[in-house]
Amino acid sequence: MSLSLQRKITAALLILYWPAFFFAAHTPVPEVVREAGVSDKGLHLLAYLILTFLLWFTVSDGGKVNWRRAAPWCVLLITIAYAIFDEWSQTFVAGRSCDAHDFLADLIGTCVGLGAFSFLSFWPASLLVTTVVIFVSANVARANLADLLPAANAIFHLAAYAVFTAIWLRCVRLLMPAIDASQNRAKRLLTAFAAPAALLLTTKILSAILGREWSAVDIVLSMGAATAVVAASRLFNTSGKIRERDKDDRIG
Question: Could you tell me which of 52, 86, 88, 232 has the fewest CB atoms within 10 Å of its CB?
């Protein structure tokens, strides 16, 4: 049986993500990460949430978690087994150790993921995971990452908000097709930018509450990425409608 496009995407990402995850966890902690005061537990939770997402939607082909089936239990056992191995094997790496609190964060990330995926299919789950990645990444360090890692910070905001906006537009088309079709151009644009703008505003407000400085560059990059994706989506949809119209004219 051939794999669906969604399954191919998650499987390919899993093949890339898992070795990268292992490598990152089994090398000495970079000095810049120590300087930034990055929350180790937050990173563990986030890493296992992503791993659980990729594992589940590779084996489930986009479906929700059904605890009466064996698949979610297998994913749970696999992630728990890997978390145990991950913590144990880090004892052989300079500057790292086996930490029960890290394992607990791993387990929480896995359980939160499987719990959420019990209610969410692939695209809404993708939107949730991307939101958590952006939200946690922006507030996981005590220092301002834009000052310590300006290039990486810029790339993150461009890529993260581009992916988030693309997934949001997909969810709108899939979950609210009637609303999307009935809206005029202005309302469609408002809908398209609503979620990215709300996420950016919420993230920056929390950062301010936690004592981190707002970065105008981050805001420009984030909304610029969202704008580029919305514009590309509209252009693609318009060209698709033109092709369909030309095809109908030829048939007629």
Answer: 88
Provide the sign of the torsion angle of the four alpha carbons 73, 75, 81, 87, taken in this order: negative
- Which residue stretches of the chain have pLDDT < 50? 1, 242, 246, 248-249, 251-252
Point out which residues pair with 141 in neighbouring strands. Answer: 38
Q: Which residues of 153-190 are buried (b: 16+ CB within 10 A; e: fewer)?
A: bbebbbebbbbbbbbbbbebeeeeeeebeeeeeeebee
pTM of the entire structure? 0.86
Q: Quick check: 12 and 75 in contact, CB under 8 A? A: no
Which tokens in the block code for residue 160?
Answer: 């993260």
Q: Centre a 10 Å sphere on the Cβ of residue 88 and count the other Cβ atoms it contains.
A: 11
Note whether 21 and 55 are within 8 A (CB).
no
Amino acid, single-letter form, for residue 174:
L
Question: Are 30 and 93 in contact, with CB atoms under 8 Å apart?
Answer: no
Q: Which of 199, 206, 204, 216 is nearest to 154 (CA)?
A: 216
Listed in sequence order, the residues at least 6 apart from 147 whose beta carbon sits closer than 8 Å to its beta carbon are: none
Taking a C-beta distance cutoff of 8 angstroms, is the pair 25, 88 a contact? no
Are the CB atoms for 127 and 171 separated by under 8 Å?
yes
> What does residue 166 show for φ and ψ, rounded to 5 degrees?
-60, -45
CB 63 within 8 A of CB 121: yes
**Closest among 180, 175, 226 to 199, alpha carbons compared:** 226
